[in-house]
Write the structure tokens for this entry.
Amino acid sequence: MRSHGSNNWCVPGSQILVCVCCSAAAFADPTSPFSPTNIFAPASTPAKSIFGLSLFVLAVTGAIFLVVFTLLLYSIVKFRKRKNDDGREPPQVYGSNQVELAWTIIPILIIVALFMATARVIAIVQKASAPSNAIAVTAIGHQFWWEYRYPSLGVVTANELHVPVSDPVHPTPTFIKLLSADTDHSFWVPRLAGKTDLIPNHPNSMWIDPHETGLYLGQCAQYCGTQHAKMLLRVYVQSRDEFDRWIQQQRQPAFPSNAVSPGQRIFETTACINCHTVSGTVANGRFGPDLTHLMSRDTIAAGAAKNTPENLRQWILNPDAIKPGSLMPAMELTEQELDALTAYLETLR
Amino acid sequence: MSTDAIALPEAELATRPMVARLHEWVTTVDHKRLGILYIIYALVFLLIAGIEATVIRIQLIRPHNDFVSPQVFNRLFTMHGTTMIFFVTMPVLFGFANYLIPLMIGARDMAFPRLNAFSFWMTAFGGFLLYFSLLGANGLYGAGNAPDVGWFAYAPLTSRTFSVGHSTDFWTLALLVSGFGSIGTAINIIATVLCMRCPGMTLAKMPLFAWLNLVMAGLVILAVSPLTAAQIMLLVDRYLGGHFFDTQAGGSAVIWMHFFWVFGHPEVYVLVLPAFAFASEIIPVFSRKPIFGYSVMVGATVAIGFISMSVWAHHMFTVGMSSAANTFFVISTMTIAVPTGIKIFNWLATMWGGKIEFKTPMLFCIAFLFQFLAAGLTGVMLSVAPFNWHLGNSYFVVAHFHYMLAGAIFFALFGAFYYWFPKMLGKMYSETLGKLHFWLFLIGFHLTFDFMHIPGLLGMPRRIYTYEPGRGWDTWNLIVTIGVFFQAAGILVFLGNLLWSYFRGKAAGSDPWDAWTLEWSTNSPPPAYNFYTIPTVQSRRPLWDLKHADDPDWKYE
């Protein structure tokens, strides 16, 4: 994964800082992420701006640490009470205004430098406005899953966010409006951007412009209730063509193979439709994830399990087995009903 | 200064029946007994909260562990945080302040002895109320018992919609009640320091301990009041149909955050200023030099007090404040590094040119200096708002504030335990056990909290009961958990040392450290009225003047 320098979205100074300070952070190697959620492996402008700044801050604080730690170590070794001590008190020194002034002014100067570097990155990230070709997404946090809406593209999906890759020369960033349906959540995909909270009654926004295709992981970063831990984030960064194809496919209504299968009848005559939508059918609940194209997703239960027929069946039978405390109720179905229902869900492609 | 006249009533006391003696402890208004009550109470809750932390760490030892359920885990971290802040650290620091301030300023008691007793029992009642929730309150989704909304209890998770049952009410009432106790103690400390000083002790001749606790008490009044207000508003929301924080009815979740952190950040200084106070007494005595730059230390303390009131929203960099607000809280937060830096340099300068004795209290204070330096620097990193967008609410921030609370505050506190133990109980602690405690706790602390920064940098958020494999977090979490057992062993050695020394320790004498402040001029333990005659002082080190009549301090100050 390489990053290319020359683009108007990027912090001009950060590239230099990256070179200067690369040794400051052991994990600071964008070519091998070390962890899929490593903040020192940025792949999008907001994350890269923060990365550059963080290396500068690490270098400054690291230098201060070394100096003061050396002084501490020196004084405890040099001024320890010796074995052959004469028992007299050392010279009693009460203070010195000159040194006090020195260790007041030097820290102030350091802080001014840190502050100016910080204010600049705040402006770069927070004051960016959406260009006309930006993708607009609304992310809505729910206990314990993510709803994604593409208002201008007419797509509603859940838990797996798809965005186009952004060429640094001709950026197509994604601007995300952050809402919450219940408690506080936080959207954090470390390689793409810092976290921003989703707070009810308090719309927020953030933006990303991933420079490389691939899958980026993250998870909810604000305690939101029992299953906060398994509210995972998956961002699929696709080439523009793939993204457009994905949008086309998601805009289709559900098209089950048979007219009305036994599974669909079960789905539409039990509590399923109170919470779930399958567009083109009577199911239009909004409390749970939209299932219109369920089988186009790799995972279920907000990333907690792979999307396999066995997991799907287990999830309907007893959601607590996969995600204890999830708000999906166990549906109390017979074996045959479960099979039929799972078979129906597998037709939602 | 001991006389037979002083010893007589103490001897009578010892022969009285157990019940009568316990009754005296319950009804006491003596600042020294209340101080010891605070400390014992805090040690009991330290054990409880320590066990909670251990269970949390066992659950996180590997990915997808199922040692405890998510419901239990959420209760554990809520109770651990609430207990540690409100029922361990605050009471233990209040205990030392209560015990030592009158002795250090040459007074017979606190200004308001009965308010003092009332404050202790309110604090104690708050802690019992919190744990009373275990007997039957319901939490999120009507399941379980103890509070499970996290120690900062963000709205709207605390609303009746999301937290049915009464566990949140126990949390609210516990903090409300103990808050009254804290405010009472704060008023008492301020009145005592301002009005009860012995003849000759001007404000500029007080021990730094008294100065730091004075500023701490001022912060308690300013910080705990908004918290108390917020708790009342939350109760109004939950039971009287208010909508302060009820987002479904147009309330604001962000207002709760402001109320909480306008308490929460000064609270950090409420906890750390007494730790500075310990270090400022212990480091000079074991370096055999007066504190370097006394007046600058006082100025830095007051500056920290003021600035700490203007930094709270650095806990809220990720909630979507405007860039102007973010920028303001960056500079206000960074500014506080200047006076704290001054303090570190002054302690170093105090040691510079001294003859440092590595007794257990000094060992803990040196480790305090090191860890406070590191925690301060990670604090500077967190003050950089864009960096904070990553680090905030990750394990990095958990490591940072534990570095401050355990690494700085608790290390200074352990130093204080060993330093004043001979004064409080009249017995010398075991130096061997003290050093064993130090090394076990130091190793455990660094295993746990050094390595805890790394999963935060690798994207691990806090408050998750389990995590996915393959994120690069596994090894670090394993090491972090291993460190806990060293710390636990250290704590057990510490408690063992206290008990063993209380029963078997050698008599300490009134001044075992050849120290300079007034508490060392009276008996160990001091009589009920502290001083046979009220002392008169001429300098900041009255006992130095006594011991070095040819070269007294007041000639130079």
Summary: The domain at 2-555 of chain B is CATH 1.20.210.10 (Cytochrome C Oxidase; Chain A). Chain B touches chain A through 97 residues (CB under 8 Å). The radius of gyration of chain B is 23 Å.
